[in-house]
């Protein structure tokens, strides 16, 4: 063993150090409070401790009718004054009415002015001046907080949209308007609020049923282990039962097509052809034609013949595939620690995701408050230009664009760091993909090394090294970090290109340029295929690295040509393995799901008293089913890696050895019997 792809290893380490530095810089400049807290028109956080807005955690919009959509509201781009308040309005009121009655009803003024600018307490100021300077809102309407922002309290009464059981309201400018005018400004908010209520109930269900969910996942883990153990004895039975079942079902289909074909004989119109009746939206019409059933019968006969011929000519390769599956189960039985290695991969990926997410948030919140001119007039030439709130009132903007405001827009900056934040975000995403692929590669190489040590042990299990999994992990880290990083780098580049293409596709969805859309679709398809191919090549390259300790390119080339020399065996083994493992995942997830269904619906009398009271029983049920499938996938991914490793070792064994005393086979006796070659040389005691 020697270190491989040293240059890539050095680059990888330098990139990791640079990634850490990027995180530190983002941490210094970023401020996650910009995401957590809403920001008012003055760039101040609502609800932040030790500030004037400490007890004002909700954002209030002076005139929500000026907001085009909820997206505009959440992006703080609504062209109206935004103010931090302690609670949302709970009644209808207009500034005109409140001003007219403030002398004899001061309580109304005291309530209304809490939604005015801080410090404003001059009800004598004319309505026109107040609305021009936006000292107070022209109206307030009953609202409730959502995402720490005040939105109209919509409800439906007898199919009619209402706010606080009213269908009309005064806009504070002398007009009476229908509440449907608020729909455009808060479109879809009511549905989201309902979703929030559902979310709270789901959270409650998780809070009282989490330990039963864990029990269900533990049962799934035990069933996965049991299935892997039983594969040693049932792999062949499961496969052949399925194959003969398919043959039987297709045979029944052929008989049924012939029966329908014969039954329609003599019926008027049944002898017409598909060409005669043309295209019909009601497909039942085609089932009244003899030609349709004849076509079905011919197609099914062709499929049946192909399956039978494949079984006849590929029977020996299918037997080899099943024997390798059994051998894989035996190998895992000797190296049980490999079943729990996916936990290590999961933790490494979780660390990568967490670091990427935190860095992305800090990068996104890096910047100083940027203020822009928000004008009511669409023809104002200063609209959307940056401004300084401290000097805004002394400029000519307010004269040329009456009612214009210098309000907070977003966070940004003009420094070199702020100009390259987008590049930093791309770098953050790229290194994240590289690290995730490296973690996966490390897991594959580690498992391959452990299972290869099993195959190349002449006397099993006596010659299997002590702690094969830990030894393989140490070799992968010590000698092959560069090779694993090289393979992960290639895959990360392709994945980043796919992410960029997906982004471009999302941006171009509204365009009518069909040629551009077609080319983009072709590129997405090509890079998807390229990614799948690279994953296949990388996986087998890591196996060869674990076996021989060569660099990535050499290992990838040798693995590729070795597989091409055994391409039929590869195809058969891949499909047989995929089928059995998919069947195992369905059995585990389905079995645990059925058990969970009977439990959470109180259909198991013994545990009826133990079932928690749930809002939605499907919440823990779906969690258990999906979790069970993922648990089974984690265990079976180890099994799939084991089978792939044993297969490459098996192909190498056939090419390098001939079964003689000088070059004995390392394969198991069952595999040797299937090949029908020379007898195994007697193994030394």
From TrEMBL:
Its main location: membrane. Keywords: Antiport, Cell membrane, Glycoprotein, Membrane, Transmembrane, Transmembrane helix, Transport. One of its GO terms (cellular component) is plasma membrane. Pfam families: Choline_transpo. The chain crosses the membrane at residues 7-28, 210-230, 237-255, 293-314, 334-358, 431-458, 479-501, 513-530, 579-600, 621-641. GO terms for molecular function: antiporter activity. Signal peptide: none annotated. It is found in: Cell membrane. It catalyses: choline(out) + n H(+)(in) = choline(in) + n H(+)(out). The keyword Nucleotide-binding does not apply. It is a multi-pass membrane protein. Choline transporter. Belongs to the CTL (choline transporter-like) family. PANTHER family: CHOLINE TRANSPORTER-LIKE (SLC FAMILY 44), CHOLINE TRANSPORTER-LIKE PROTEIN 5. This is Choline transporter-like protein. It comes from Loxia curvirostra.
């Amino acid at each position: 063993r020697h270190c491989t792809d040293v240059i890539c290893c050095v680059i990888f380490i330098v990139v990791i150090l640079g990634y850490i530095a990027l995180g530190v810089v983002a941490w210094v400049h970023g401020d996650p409070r910009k995401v957590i807290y809403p920001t008012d028109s003055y760039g101040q956080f609502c609800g932040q401790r030790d500030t004037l807005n400490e007890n004002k955690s909700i954002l209030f919009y002076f005139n929500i009718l000026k907001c085009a959509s909820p997206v505009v509201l959440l992006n703080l781009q609504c062209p109206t004054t935004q103010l931090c308040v302690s609670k949302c309005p709970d009644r209808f009121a207009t500034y005109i009415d409140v001003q007219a009655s403030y002398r004899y009803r001061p309580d109304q003024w005291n309530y209304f002015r809490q939604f005015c600018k801080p410090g404003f307490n001059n009800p004598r100021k004319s309505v026109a001046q107040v609305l021009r300077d936006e000292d107070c809102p022209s109206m307030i309407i009953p609202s409730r907080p959502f995402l720490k922002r005040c939105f109209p309290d919509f409800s439906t009464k007898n199919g009619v949209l209402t706010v606080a059981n009213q269908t009309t309201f005064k806009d504070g400018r002398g007009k009476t308007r229908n509440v449907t005018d608020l729909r455009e400004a808060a479109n879809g908010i009511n549905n989201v609020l309902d979703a929030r209520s559902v979310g709270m109930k789901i959270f409650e269900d998780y809070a009282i049923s989490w330990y039963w969910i864990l029990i269900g996942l533990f049962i799934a883990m035990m069933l996965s282990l049991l299935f892997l153990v039983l594969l040693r004895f049932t792999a062949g039975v499961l496969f052949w039962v399925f194959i003969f079942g398919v043959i039987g079902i297709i045979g029944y289909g052929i008989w049924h097509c012939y029966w329908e074909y014969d039954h329609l004989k003599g019926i008027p119109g049944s002898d017409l052809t598909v060409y005669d009746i043309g295209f019909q939206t009601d497909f039942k019409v085609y089932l009244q034609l003899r030609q349709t059933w004849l076509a079905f019968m011919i197609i099914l006969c062709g499929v049946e013949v192909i399956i039978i011929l494949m079984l006849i000519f590929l029977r020996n390769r299918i037997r080899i595939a099943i024997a390798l599956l059994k051998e894989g189960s035996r190998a895992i039985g000797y190296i049980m620690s490999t079943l729990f290695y996916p936990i290590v991969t999961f933790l490494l990926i979780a660390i990568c995701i967490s670091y990427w997410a935190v860095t992305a948030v800090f990068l996104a919140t890096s910047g100083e408050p940027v203020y822009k001119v928000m004008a009511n007039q669409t023809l104002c030439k200063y609209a959307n230009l940056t401004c300084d709130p401290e000097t805004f009132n002394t400029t000519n903007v307010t004269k040329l664009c009456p009612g214009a405001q210098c309000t907070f827009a977003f966070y940004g900056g003009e420094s070199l760091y702020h100009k390259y934040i987008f590049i930093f975000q791309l770098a953050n995403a790229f290194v994240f993909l590289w690290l995730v692929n490296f973690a996966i590669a490390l897991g594959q190489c580690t498992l391959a090394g452990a299972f290869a040590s099993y195959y190349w042990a002449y006397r099993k299990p006596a010659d299997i090294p002590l702690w094969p999994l830990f030894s393989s992990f140490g070799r992968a880290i010590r000698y092959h970090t560069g090779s694993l990083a090289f393979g992960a780098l290639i895959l990360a580049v392709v994945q980043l290109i796919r992410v960029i293409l997906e982004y471009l596709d999302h941006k171009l969805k509204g365009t009518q340029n069909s040629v551009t859309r077609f080319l983009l679709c072709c590129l997405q398809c090509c890079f998807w295929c390229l990614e799948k191919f690279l994953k296949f090549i990388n996986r087998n390259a890591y196996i060869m690295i674990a076996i021989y300790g060569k660099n990535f390119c050499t290992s990838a080339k040798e693995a590729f040509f070795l597989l091409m020399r055994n391409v039929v065996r590869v195809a058969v083994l891949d499909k047989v393995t995929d089928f059995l493992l998919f069947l195992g995942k369905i059995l585990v997830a389905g079995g645990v799901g059925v058990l969970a269904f009977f439990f959470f619906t109180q259909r198991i009398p013994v545990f009826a008293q133990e079932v928690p009271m749930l809002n939605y029983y499907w919440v823990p049920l779906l969690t258990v089913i999906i979790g069970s499938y993922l648990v089974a996938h984690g265990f079976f991914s180890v099994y799939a890696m084991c089978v792939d490793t044993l297969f490459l070792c098996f192909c190498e064994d056939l090419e390098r050895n001939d079964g003689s005393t000088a070059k004995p086979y390392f394969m198991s006796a069952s595999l040797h019997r299937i090949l029908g070659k020379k007898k195994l040389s007697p193994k030394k005691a």
